[in-house]
Structures are given as C-alpha cells and as structure tokens.
Design goal:
One of its GO terms (cellular component) is endoplasmic reticulum membrane. By secondary structure, this protein is mainly alpha-helical. It has one domain. The protein has 15 helices and four strands. The strands form two sheets. A two-stranded parallel sheet has the order 1-4. Helix 2 packs across helix 11 and helix 10 crosses helix 11. The radius of gyration is 20 Å and the shape is globular.
C-alpha cells in the first residue's frame, strides 16, 4: 500500500469556513423524480404492511430475506468501494475486471449514473454545505437527505460545475458504458435479476420477490446512502476538523459499510479507508478493498501518514477519546 503524502491537503480555517453567498432563488420542482420517489415509498409502506400485519396468505421464505440482505450489501459496496472511493476520489486504482464488477454492483443499487454521481460528489467536497453543494445541509435535514432530489439544481451549482475536472471519468470506458446504458442496467441489475433469483431458484412467489427487492431493499439502500449527506453532516464528533459540518457518526458507518467517519473523510478524502480506524464499526468496504489488493485487482492504495493525520489534528482538530468509535 502506498502512503501518499504528496497530495495537497487543503485544511486551512479560511477554506473550511468559506461560504458562498446565499441567493433567494426559486428551484423548480422536478415532478418526474417526485413521482418516482413517491411510487417507491408507497410501495415500501405497502410491503411493510404486508409483513407487519401478516396480510400475505403465503409465508415468505427465509432464503428470500437472506437474498434481500445480500443484495443490499452487494449494491452498497458498489456505491462505497466503486462510485465513491474509486471513481469520485481515486483513492485506489482498479483493474478493468474489477471496474466492470463494481459498475454492475453499483447498477444494482438503482441510483443515478456513475458520471453524474461523481460530478455531484466532487462539487459536494469542493463546496461543501454551500449553495453549490447539491445537498447543502444548511438548508435543513429534509433537503440534505432527500429534498435535493426533488428540485432543480441551484444556479450556484450550475456555475461551479464548470470548475470540476471530469476528464478521468470521461476517459474510463466502464463509466461511459454505464452512462449510455443507465436505464437498461437499472432494469436488469436492480430489478430483473434480484426479483428473478428467488422465484427461479427456490420457488418464491413473485409478490414476495417484488416487495422485498423493488421496495424494501431499494428504499433501505436509498435512505442509508442519503444519511451520509444528512445525518453525518449534522450529528457526531469532529476530531479532525472542528470547523466543518461533516462529523464522525458510527451509526451511519454501520449502515453504509464504513462511510460514516465523515469528519475524517472530508479532511482526507483521498484515503481509501475513509477512516483512521478502518476496522471499527464494520468498515466492510475497507476490508473488501484490502482483500482485492491482496489478489492484485486493486492497487496504488492511497492513505495519509500517521504523522500527517496528527499534524492536522493538532492544527484544526480536537482528539477525544477514540473509544466512542466502538459503541
């Protein structure tokens, strides 16, 4: 593994507290997204009612429940190890085969295309919690969690997106394939395969397969992912940079395979571990990347040296007792 301390670390107080002036701007509602989110949430409530009140005449098979959990973790790792740590931050490099695998895993999550996810995330880091940030937490919990998906982008976002370098993403044929066939990949890997497997292999009813995969698993994945933008920007500890909103939130980390150590991540965004304590709170994303490094599929893993981490803590952070991380 490489300890890359040559990357510039922007951690000055002036940059940390820099804000873009707010504008009184009307952001039009995106009704297509509102109806889509509404449909899946209504389906989620119906599915919970079916299982909560025992409305189904045919009991669900335990293998179907296990399959939903597996699909949740597989698609979640496509987000964390793939579109986030690999494509957004270039925290490590991956072979072509691994990039294809991560792209398909990400497609199973049912979120929007890799190209747009990376663009949004790079803007989010550069202009965190300002009007340019697509999910600016200063506009409240609901907006930062899911409301930002229901409105058009803020004009400041549209201005600042021109500053984001996406040449590396454009040059990756795997990302461009995902961009071209985003809808088809969603239908196949988020809906068709997850629903078909329990029906074909252990005789599950189509109703149970649809309810667990298209509604319960999908909505749970969506909200756990979105909690990084909202919960982890509002509540938690800030030991690495005390003047920014992103915080260490172990609960979010448990739900997102290690993405909740957000104060650290916003301070050292290139670290493939996304945490100073990579094996606490079930940081399974780091375990996966490390395993892939062992077999040569992942390489050039980037991380700051302990000396650099300590230097940043001394200058702009506050180091509490780290025992809170294991609770």
């Amino acid at each position: 593994m490489l300890a890359d301390d040559t990357d510039a670390l922007v951690f000055s107080k002036s940059n940390a507290v820099k804000q873009i002036a707010s504008e009184e701007v009307r952001q039009n509602l995106v009704w297509k997204n509102i109806f889509r989110l509404g449909f899946f949430h209504v389906g989620f409530v119906f599915a919970c009612s079916v299982y909560g009140f025992g409305l189904s005449a045919v009991p669900i098979k335990w293998l179907t429940v296990l399959w939903a959990v597996i699909c949740y973790y597989v698609s979640g790792l496509g987000i964390t190890a793939g579109v986030h740590r690999l494509w957004s931050h270039r925290a490590y490099k991956a072979t072509l085969g691994l990039r294809i695998m991560l792209m398909l895993m990400y497609s199973a999550a049912g979120l929007y295309g890799i190209f747009y996810w990376v663009k949004d995330h790079r803007i989010h880091h550069k202009y965190s919690d300002t009007d340019a940030d697509p999910h600016n937490v200063k506009r409240g919990f609901f907006f930062s969690h899911i409301g930002w998906l229901m409105v058009e982008r803020h004009p400041e976002y549209r201005r600042r997106q021109k500053e984001i370098d996406l040449s590396d993403i454009i040059a990756d044929p795997v990302v461009m394939f995902n961009k071209k066939y985003e809808r088809e990949l969603f239908i196949i890997f988020c809906i068709a395969i997850p629903v078909a497997v329990p029906v074909i292999f252990w005789g599950e009813t189509l109703l149970h397969a649809i309810l667990t995969q298209c509604f319960i698993r999908f909505i749970f994945t969506l909200h756990c992912t979105l909690s990084v933008n909202s919960v982890a920007h509002l509540w938690g500890y800030r030991p690495y940079n005390r003047v920014i909103n992103p915080a260490e939130n172990p609960i979010v980390s448990l739900l997102t395979a290690g993405e909740g150590f957000h104060n650290y991540h916003h301070t050292f965004p290139w670290d493939y571990k996304a945490s100073e304590w990579p094996y606490l709170s079930l940081n399974s994303t780091t375990l996966l990347i490390h395993a892939l490094w062992k077999i040569g599929w992942a390489y050039d893993l980037r991380e700051p040296s302990p000396a650099l981490v300590q230097k940043v803590i001394n200058e702009i952070g506050h180091k509490p007792d780290a025992s809170y991380l294991i609770h």
